[in-house]
Amino acid sequence: EHGMYLSSLSQALNGFVLVVTSEGLIFYSSHTIQDYLGFHQTDVMHQSVFEIIHTEDQPEFRRNLHWAHNPPHAPEGEPSLEVGKSHGSSAVIYKPDQLPPENSSFLERSFVCRFRCLLDNSSGFLALNLQGRLKFLHGQNKRSEDGSALPPQLALFAISTPLQPPSILQIRTKNMIFRTKHKLDFTPLACDAKGKIVLGYTETELRMCGTGYQFVHAADTLYCAENHVRMMKTGESGLTVFRLLTKENRWKWVQANARLVYKNGKPEYIVVTQRPLVEEEGGEHLRKRSMHLPFTFATGEALLYQSTYPLLGFPDPFQSKEKTSKFKKTSCSHGGRSQKNGVDPSSLLGAVMRQDKAVY
């Protein structure tokens, strides 16, 4: 029954499906949530919906989850103490005979809430219209404290659509936008299907070792690192234009925005939304950037680190490709600092030194 209801909702072109239990847990989300909020389907399933709803809109969402628009512990206009947390104990369990019939118009829902959005065309939140109804959620097989089976409870089944229709530009560029997921030090964790097409790597190759900086052009590393630091302080990197190394050993310009994703109030990982740019757009950004920087450099070693080059006791990475790959293996196998030379392969210097000169 749920499957039929969801598939009919999914026919809507501009939106995603959301099923939220009476206590505020996301029971189901369609994969298209990623196109609107930037979160992957697996990031939100079985999490509290209040983690991704604007604080001011949480009481409104809580009211709409309740069959009579009157949830416990949440007097009108006052946010509940449990807002933002999922407490199974705070949900009141109802017997079916205490509730209106499921086909009652009383259980229809249509309301607006701002949801956390990781995409770079938003202000951090996206206003969504949720339209659907409360329906019994079967198959949860929950039990009460005394061990007896609990009856199915009402859950919100809704299609969520943005209030603002997408602009022509967004529609045109949406097909090329890809997303990557990183640890806090920027080590790649995942890449969506479009990213694999644009960059040519498999997820395993992206995660092979070191932070993601070994894929960044040496002349862009400082600029990216500065925005990385800004993101750790403010939660967002701002638009960052830089070159990524593709599998074919070519540089691809991208315009990216990185955002921190928090769980229980702590930063947990980074999501980066990236749009490929043509060579001319990238060159234009580089010219603007070089006006702000006191120096320019091609591969960045000496100017970037103000050190004599090559470093003593450090194998020259700009030798033949065979030696480079051998060096890559040894630097990774230490899993951190290389004893021989004291350069951490996952540092900015280590990342640049592991790159093959041929790519420049």
TrEMBL record:
Locate the PAS domain: which residues?
2-66
Keywords in alphabetical order: Activator, DNA-binding, Nucleus, Transcription, Transcription regulation
| A GO molecular-function descriptor | transcription cis-regulatory region binding
* GO biological process annotation, one example: xenobiotic metabolic process
User: What Gene3D superfamilies does the database record attribute to this sequence?
Assistant: PAS domain
GO cellular component: a single term: nucleus
User: Which Pfam family name is an example for this entry?
Assistant: PAS
Segment Disordered: which positions?
Answer: 66-85, 325-346
Cellular localisation = Nucleus
Q: What is this protein called?
A: AHR protein
